[in-house]
Design brief:
The chain is an alpha+beta fold. Helix content is 21%, strand content 35%. The chain has five helices and 14 strands. The protein has helices at 16-23, 48-54, 105-117, 169-172, 204-218; strands at 2-4, 10-12, 41-42, 60-69, 75-81, 91-92, 95-97, 124-129, 133-134, 139-148, 161-168, 179-185, 188-197, 200-203. It is globular and about 45 Å long. The two termini are 21 Å apart.
Length: 220
């Protein structure tokens, strides 16, 4: 499968890792731990005024792993959360808050992937960070894009993850599949991306991060 570029041209999906290594790096942005600094993306992108009206402050550093499976047709590994109060039944990346013992945000993402779905470190090659992503729930998320061997096996933590599944990278990187929606959030209209894939409804923070992945790797 191919990925359509904004120019109308297409590139093979397996070209992804070459592009990612050229465009991303593992330098941690200073804004991760300093909310006064600019340079972040997030839920505010589509309507900055709604962020101000909501009076939201994203202050809690977190990390997620974007596991891209290295197949002839690459795929992204996603999880379906259990009915936790913080992320009930949502589709998400493995991840969570950065702990004091985590050497780097990437280390935090790898630890969370091991704890949540049993994805072992030996099969993961971190490539680089996306832009810092701020959420209405108050997190400052730094996503780590990583290459994952197709030989992986998972052991799901039933307390946190109900299911794990792959979605073709070419589908997620096709801007025609990036639908814009809106919903009421505490009396404020919040705009967000959604990428429905069969019975899987990918939306919100996860879709926003995937949109940022598309922009960083395939735009410009």
């Amino acid at each position: 499968m191919d990925v359509a570029l904004p120019s109308g041209k297409t590139v093979p999906a397996h070209d992804f890792f070459i592009r990612a290594r050229a465009r991303l790096g593992l330098e941690v942005p200073a804004a991760l731990n300093d909310p006064t600094l600019e340079g972040a993306r997030g839920d505010l992108d589509l309507d900055p005024s709604s962020w101000e009206r909501a009076g939201v402050k994203a202050t809690r550093p977190a990390a997620v792993l974007i596991p891209v499976i290295d197949r002839p047709e690459p795929a992204v590994l996603l999880t379906l959360r259990t009915e936790l109060p913080s992320h009930p039944g949502q589709i998400a990346f493995p991840g969570g808050k950065i702990e004091p013992d985590d050497a780097t945000p990437a280390a935090a993402a790898l630890r969370e992937a091991r704890e949540e779905i049993g994805l072992v470190r030996e099969l993961i090659e971190p490539i680089g960070y996306l832009d810092l992503y701020l959420t209405f729930s108050g997190f400052r998320i730094l996503p780590t894009v990583a290459r994952v061997s197709p030989d992986y096996a998972l052991t799901l933590n039933a307390d946190e993850v109900a299911d794990a599944f792959e979605v073709p990278l070419a589908f997620l990187m096709d801007a025609q599949n990036h639908a814009l929606h809106s919903r009421d959030w505490k009396g404020i209209e919040r705009k967000y991306y959604a990428m429905p894939f069969g019975e899987r409804y990918i939306w919100g923070v996860t879709a926003g991060i995937l949109r940022n992945l598309y922009e960083r790797i395939y735009q410009g």
